[in-house]
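4.2 Preliminary Data

To establish feasibility before requesting continued support, the project team ran the inverse folding procedure on a target of 440 residues. The structure was first converted into the token representation described in Section 3, and no sequence information of any kind was made available to the design step. The complete token record follows.
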């Protein structure tokens, strides 16, 4: 009987955690993480008076089926971990609708838009025509183009761009309309709200993201005898004679699940040139989150309230997540909107900006008693037009597989993309080892 293979997973973000959980029952696994805690760019952090904060994605949707399947595999119930809300669109200064829970897709969207508030009949039907035109574009599969150029072709004015398209694209792709891929947006919509009624439901973690996913996965790995090595930064990996060497150890295979800007120094010197070139061509955008706590209750109209004409794109009502009198203000592509914010000493004062935006909904709100700003400067890889995945054949032949949200062929850099690529890399690794073992 052949012994289980030795496999290394380098990087304990969501892609690495997904790969490790997939591999653990089938191999002797070591999971390396350069930082103190697992979770990568979507983990829980603690700052001062705030103990339950996140530095990453704040909202999952029902279409994140692979994430939920992973949670169930490690013994967790998504219904217990998340606050679930039906898909709604609530701009405090603009269009508002909420999808019914009984109608099937796409009738639920049709009903919601037609019964929406703060738009007349002509505006609503114009939005529905735009969505129908987008579905037709997706079915034809023409060459990719920017979302802004497609909106120009459809003669979509600034009003609906501000009321719907811009906040939707920033929330889904974290990329501005001018450079965002129309094809990627269509994939998101086709696998999400166009596919089924519940695919667009909001899932908001009741605890921080580390407690939601990283901690359960690490417990699962321990149950399967896997080794977890935090605070262990791996230098350049060597690959020769069908083996992979990392941190002075020899493995039968490895999955690299690190951020792209950390990848090049890790790759074997003679491998991965196509990957290095692809990484150099990537661009990134920031996400800033401002956490605010007040001495009195907040009154927000929805668990997620947006603005069409304010720097803050979305306000998350943390009072509904057992954090009384708290809100999180989310600014996507904050690297591009900094000049529209309030400034102190030439730097964006995001907390002051978020407070001013909250005053639009609570005019008599006093200054916050606690505040914390977290900016992830390279939060996501931009979902730009015609972005192509690199050729990884030489790495695979050397028993190295790559995982990460930036390596998904259909989706933007999201948690679902990270988990899918992690599981795919793990399965390809196992298949290759099984094939090699079977031919010996």
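Position-by-position output of the design step:
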């Amino acid at each position: 009987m052949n012994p289980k293979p030795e496999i290394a997973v380098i990087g304990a973000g969501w892609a690495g955690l997904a790969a490790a959980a997939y591999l653990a029952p089938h191999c002797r696994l070591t999971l390396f993480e350069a930082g103190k805690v697992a979770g990568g760019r979507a983990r829980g952090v603690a700052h001062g008076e705030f103990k339950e904060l996140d530095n990453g994605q704040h909202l999952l949707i029902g279409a994140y089926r692979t994430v939920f399947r992973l949670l169930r595999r490690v013994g967790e119930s998504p219904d217990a971990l998340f606050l679930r809300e039906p898909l709604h669109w609530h701009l405090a200064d603009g269009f508002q609708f909420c999808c019914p829970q009984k109608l099937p897709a796409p009738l639920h969207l049709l009903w919601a838009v037609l019964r929406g508030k703060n738009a007349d009949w002509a505006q609503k039907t114009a939005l529905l025509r735009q969505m129908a035109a987008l579905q037709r574009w997706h079915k034809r599969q023409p060459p990719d183009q920017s979302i802004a150029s497609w909106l120009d072709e459809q003669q979509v004015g600034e009003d609906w761009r501000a009321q719907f398209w811009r906040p939707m694209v920033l929330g889904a792709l974290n990329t501005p309309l001018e450079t965002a891929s129309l094809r990627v947006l269509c994939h998101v919509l086709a696998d999400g709200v166009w596919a089924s009624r519940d695919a667009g439901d909001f899932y908001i973690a009741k605890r921080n993201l580390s407690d939601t996913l990283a901690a359960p996965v690490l417990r699962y790995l321990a149950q399967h005898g896997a080794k977890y090595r935090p605070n262990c930064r791996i230098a350049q990996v060597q690959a020769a004679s069908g083996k992979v060497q990392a941190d002075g150890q020899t493995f039968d295979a490895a999955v690299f699940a690190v951020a792209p800007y950390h990848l090049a120094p890790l790759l074997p010197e003679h491998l991965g040139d196509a990957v290095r070139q692809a990484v150099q061509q990537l661009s990134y955008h920031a996400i800033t989150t401002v956490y605010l706590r007040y001495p009195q209750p907040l009154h927000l109209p929805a668990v997620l309230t947006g603005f069409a004409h304010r720097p803050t794109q979305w306000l998350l009502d943390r009072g509904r997540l057992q954090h009384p009198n708290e809100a999180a203000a989310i600014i996507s592509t904050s690297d591009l909107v900094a000049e529209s914010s309030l400034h102190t000493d030439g730097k964006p004062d995001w907390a002051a900006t978020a407070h001013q935006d909250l005053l639009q909904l609570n005019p008599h709100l006093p200054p916050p008693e606690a505040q914390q700003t977290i900016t992830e400067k390279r939060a996501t890889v931009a979902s730009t037009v015609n972005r192509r995945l690199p050729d990884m054949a030489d790495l695979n032949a050397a028993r190295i597989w790559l995982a990460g949200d930036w390596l998904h062929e259909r989706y933007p850099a999201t948690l679902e993309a990270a988990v899918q690529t992690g599981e795919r890399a793990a399965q390809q690794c196992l298949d290759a080892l099984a094939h090699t073992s079977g031919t010996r």
